[in-house]
Amino acid sequence: MIPPADSNAAPRRDPAERERDREILAAVQRGDADAFDRFVERFGPMIFSFGLRMCGNREDAEDVLQETLIKVYTRLRTLQDPDALRAWLWRIVANECRMSRRGPRDPGRQVNIEELLAPREEGGAPMELPDPDAPDPEASTIRLQDRERLEEAIRNLPPAYRIILLLRDFEGLTSEEVARVLGISVPNAKVRLHRARLALRKLLLGAEPPRAAKGSG
Amino acid sequence: MDDARHPECDCLEWLETLSGYLDGDVGEDLFHRIEAHIAECPRCAWAVATLRETIEACRRAPRPVLEPSELRRVVERAREELHRQGVL
């Protein structure tokens, strides 16, 4: 294995975070008085932001947070492997998002597990070619840095693409952890992640990719 | 359009490898072949640049936050349920 082409492309979780997870799990399993508060402080913001991006509305995101806290904390004492905590927690969060009342941009409809795990484009996702006219990289940078544009693009992705991007590129899970959360193989997770990234990139760049002016250089 | 040096099928083949390349998740031989290709192919070079920006935009994105008062309300509901179940 060689180093990443770009160090920023590596998952952002560091060993200190793993150690922190282990300490919180140990506190819960010892029954420390402040264990619940530590658990909420550590994972609450992650669960809420994931739920909001996945469900598309704050009411469902609050429900996801509440139900996840209850379910995870109830079962946490039985978790044997601290390194499995992340994948285990995110699997519960993902299931809670699936059970959310509304679903993104579709009031009254539940997001079923097939939608989470099998995108409509599976086996035939549009694989666009890069722009043949060598666009200006600086122009694309400006557009990609727009936070609202990013959040809107995330909301407009198919749920199966949205969930894998949130797990891998927002929350920093490894491909192996993502595969465990979604119950799919690691190669399948990598293929789906790549297609999700391409789909997001396409949305961020818009229908009209920036182009270098022909004959201007 | 001059596609003679970079036929579509070749670029599609490279495109499938780019996430692995950016994640450092390809073997050394493939890594060097991708590097050589994007050095010659502006279309794939742009694809790599914009895909990298897309990934970095996700990683840099700040979390949407829950107001402290709302967070307390949600956490208290969860705490009450855990008390009711005898977990806390």
Word description of this protein:
The complex is a heterodimer of chains A (217) and B (88). Chain A is mainly alpha-helical and 217 residues long. Chain A is 60% helix and 0% strand. Chain A has two domains: 15-111, Orthogonal Bundle (Rna Polymerase Sigma Factor, Chain: A), CATH 1.10.1740; 116-217, Arc Repressor Mutant, subunit A, CATH 1.10.10. In chain A, helix 2 (35-55) crosses helix 4 and helix 8 (159-170) crosses helix 10 (186-205). Mean pLDDT of chain A is 77; it is low at 1-10, 103-132 and 207-217. Chain B is an all-alpha fold and 88 residues long. Chain B has one domain (8-84): Arc Repressor Mutant, subunit A (Orthogonal Bundle), CATH 1.10.10. Chain B is elongated. Chains A and B meet through helix 2, helix 3, helix 6, helix 7 and helix 8 of A and helix 1, helix 2, helix 4 and helix 5 of B.
Question: What CATH architecture label of the largest domain in chain A applies?
Answer: Orthogonal Bundle
- Helix fraction of chain A? 55-70%
Sheet with the most strands, sense and barrel status of chain B? none
Broad CATH class of chain B: Mainly Alpha
Domains counted in the coordinates of chain A: how many? 2
Supply the number of helical segments of chain A. 10
The number of distinct structural domains of chain B comes to 1
How does the overall form of chain B come out from the CA principal axes?
elongated
Strand content of chain A: under 5%
- One letter per element, helices H and strands E, the order of chain B comes to HHHHH
What's the total number of strands of chain A?
0
Helix count, DSSP H or I runs of 4 or more residues of chain B: 5
SSE class of chain B: mainly alpha
The CATH topology of the largest domain in chain A, please? Answer: Arc Repressor Mutant, subunit A
CATH architecture of chain B: Orthogonal Bundle
